[in-house]
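C-alpha cells incoming
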C-alpha cells in the first residue's frame, strides 16, 4: 500500500482479526503480520473489542442504543427548529397586513 492512502476494514474483518489473538492463541505481532496490518492497530482493535464486544467497531448503521437515540433526537430538533423558523417568517408576513 502506498503512503498516504488508508485501507478501510469492515467490522467483520476487525472482529475476526481480534479473534485470532483472543481465541486463536496467536500473538498480536504474528496476527498483524499475517493480516498485513500494523501491530498497534490490532492492539487498538483488541482493546475496543474487550471493552464492549457487542458494540465494538460501530461504523455506519451500527450504533449503541444511546447513540442512536441521540442521533434521532438531534434530527428531530433540527426539523422542529426549521418548522419554527418557517412559522416565524409566515407570521411576520401575515401580520404586516395590506398596504
Amino acid at each position: 500500500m502506498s503512503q498516504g492512502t488508508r485501507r478501510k476494514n469492515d467490522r467483520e474483518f476487525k472482529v475476526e482479526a481480534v479473534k485470532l489473538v483472543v481465541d486463536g492463541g496467536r500473538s498480536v505481532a504474528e496476527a498483524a503480520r499475517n493480516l498485513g496490518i500494523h501491530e498497534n492497530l490490532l492492539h487498538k482493535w483488541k482493546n475496543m473489542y474487550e471493552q464492549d464486544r457487542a458494540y465494538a467497531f460501530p461504523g455506519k448503521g451500527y450504533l449503541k442504543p444511546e447513540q442512536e437515540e441521540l442521533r434521532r433526537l438531534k434530527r428531530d430538533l433540527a426539523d422542529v427548529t426549521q418548522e419554527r423558523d418557517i412559522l416565524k417568517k409566515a407570521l411576520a408576513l401575515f401580520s404586516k397586513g395590506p398596504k
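note: DSSP finds four helices and no strands in the chain.
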